[in-house]
Amino acid sequence: MNGVWTILRRSPRAAAGAGILLAMFLLALLAPVLTPYSPTSQDFSSWTTPGREHLLGTTALGQDVWAQILYGARKTLLIGLMAGLIATVIGTTIGVAGAYFGGRVEDVLNVVTNVFLVLPGLPLLIIVSAFVRGAGVWSIILVIAFTGWAWGARVLRSQALAIRNRDFVQAAIVSGERPGRIIFAEMLPNMAGLIAANFFSTALYAVLSEAGLSFLGFGDVSSVTWGTMLYWAQARGALLQGAWWWIAAPGLLIALLGTAFALLNFGIDEVTNPKIVHSIRATKVLRRGRKAAPRLVSGGPEPLMSIGHLDAGYVTPRGNVRAVRDVSLDVAPGEFVGLAGESGCGKSTLAFAATRLLDAPGAVFGGEARLAGTDLLELSNEDLRRVRWKDYSMVFQASMNILNPVIKVREQVYDAMQAHGITDPAKLDARARELFRLVGIREGYLDAYPHQLSGGMKQRVIIAIALALEPKLVVMDEPTTALDVVVQRQILQEIDAVRRRLGISIIFITHDLSLLVEMSDRIAIMYAGEIIEEAPAKALYAGPKHPYTARLMNAFPELEGPNERREGIPGRPPPLSVELRGCPFYDRCPSRMPGQCDEHKPASVEIVPGHRVACFLHSPLIKEGDVAHAAD
Ligand SMILES: Nc1ncnc2c1ncn2[C@@H]1O[C@H](COP(=O)(O)OP(=O)(O)OP(=O)(O)O)[C@@H](O)[C@H]1O
After folding, report:
1. How many domains does the chain contain in total?
2. Given 221, 251, 272, which residue is the final one in a domain?
3. What domain range is 177 assigned to?
4. Binding site membership of 361 for ligand 1 (Cβ less than 6 Å)
5. Whose CA is nearest to atom 30 of ligand 1?
6. Whose CA is nearest to atom 25 of ligand 1?
7. pTM score, two decimals?
8. Ligand 1 close to Cβ of residue 345 (< 6 A)
9. 320: Cβ below 6 Å to ligand 1?
C-alpha cells in the first residue's frame, strides 16, 4: 500500500491516471443513482438530441445514451481489468518460469512466446473471437488475455533473468529453498513495478481490442459496453443521422480510459525505474524522532554532502530489512572519505540510497542526503536528472558492464555531456581526449568498441564518464574490485590524482581497510547498518577505538614489516531484518559488558575532535536515548 501512495505522490502522471480510473469506477458503481433509466429499455423517441431529459441523447432504438455509458462502464472496466489481469498472470508465469528454470523449460516457453509474438495481433483476435462469437463477456476477456500476454512475458523474462543472477536469489537457491518460494518471495517482489506497469499496458490493449472487436461486430453485441455502443451507432448510421453524441460519448470515454491506463503505466515506470521507492509510513515514523545531524568534523568546513539520519533497506514479504540504520555522514569539499565494513553491513545500500539509485524493493525509510544544501531525496525526477552527472556521479563495481558493446566508446563518453547541453563537436572531442588522458587511457581508444578494451580500461572509461562534467562529488562503490591488484592500484592512484587536481569529493566504499588507510582523508566504519566509528584515516590506523574496528584492522596485513598470520573476526553480524537491542557487535565483542552493552545502545560520541565512536568503552555514560533527549 505504501508503494501505491508513493507512486501517486511522486508521479503526477500516475496520479492523473488513477484519478480518471477512480472517476470511471464511481460512474459504473453509481449507475443506478445517476440515471433512472435502464440501458436496454427502448422507451424513448429515437435520435433525441442531448438535453435535460436525456443528458447524452438517445439511440436509433430510443435507448438513453447516458444510461448506456454508465452501465457500459461496468463491462468495459471489467473487460479491461480482468483481461489485463489474466494476461499479466500468464505473461508473468511464463516469463519468470522460463528465466528461473532455464534449459528445456525456457526453450519451450520461448518458442511459445515467440509464436504468439509473431502472429499478427488483430487478425488472431478476430479469428479466435469469431469462434466464440456470442459466448458472452467472459469469452471476450479470455480471448483478449489469450492473445495479449506474450509481450509481457518477454519483458518480464528479461527482468527475471537479471534478478535470478542477483546474489540474494543465488544464495536462496544454494541454501535449498523451494523454487516456488524463491519465485514468489524473492523474485516477484523485486519485479512488482514492472508487473504493475505491464498490467496497465495490457489493460489498455484489452480496452482498445474490445472496442475494435465490437466495432467490427466480433464482440458480444447483445451486451452493453462502450465498444458495442460504437458498433450499434455505426450499424444504425448514427453519423448519417447527425447523431454525433451516440459515437462521441463512448469514443471519448474509451480514449480517456486508454489514457488513464497509459498514464498509470508511465507513472509506475517513472517511479520504480528511477531507483527509489519511499516508504512513507516508515519515513513519517522516523522523521517524528529526527534529530539534528551531527557534524562529523567539529569546527570543520561546511560539508558538501551531508547524509543525515538516513534509514534505508528493502521491503520484503517477511518485513523490512533495515540495511542502513540512522546513518549520518558528512563529506567536506575535496575530501576523500572511505567507507569500510564486512560484506552485507549496508555499504552499497547507503551509497545507492544517498544517490537516489536504490531500486525497488529497496526503499528509503527516512532521513536526508543533502548535496550542497539540496536534499537529493526530495528532488523531483526531473530535477534529479539535472543534477546527476553534473553535481554528483557514481561508479559501481559492475559499472563497466553498462557500456554498450555495439556503440563506440567515444559516443558513450559524449552521451552524458550531450545530455547536459554540451553539443559542440570540437568541445566534446577536446573534453573526451582530456578525460582519457586524465584516467590514463590512450586517446586512440576513443574510437574503439568496448569489447576491444580490457576490464581495467573499461572501468577507466566509466570513471572518465563519471568525471566528464566535473561533478563536485563522486560516489565509488568497490570501483576496482573486479580488477587485478596491479590495475586496481594504478586506477586508484589516478583517481586520487584527479581528485586533487579537480578538487572533487569522493566517497569510496570497499572491504579493503588497508587500502582506505592509504587513500582516505577520513574513514567511516560500518557494522550492521550503522556507522560505529569514524575518524581521520591516520588516527583510525594509529588508534582504532571500537573493538570491531580494531579487529577489522587486525584482519588485514600491515602496510610495512614482516608478514604475520592474520585473525578473522569470529561470529557473524546480526540479521538486519530484526530490531536490534543494545550494541550490534555485542555477540562478537571481546570487551563486552553484560547488562550494559546488551541492554543499551551506545550513542556515537566525538571523543576527540573529528573522532567519533559508538562504544561504551569510550562513552560509558551515554546511551542513545540520552543523546536524543539532549537534542530535544
Ligand atoms: N533486494 C534485497 N532484498 C532484501 N535484502 C537485501 C536486498 N539487497 C540487499 N539486501 C540485504 O541488505 C543488507 C546490506 O546489503 P549491502 O549490499 O548494502 O551490503 P554491503 O555492505 O554493500 O555488502 P557487500 O560489501 O557484499 O557489497 C544485506 O544484509 C543484504 O542481504
Report:
1. 2
2. 272
3. 22-27+58-272
4. yes
5. 344
6. 343
7. 0.58
8. yes
9. no
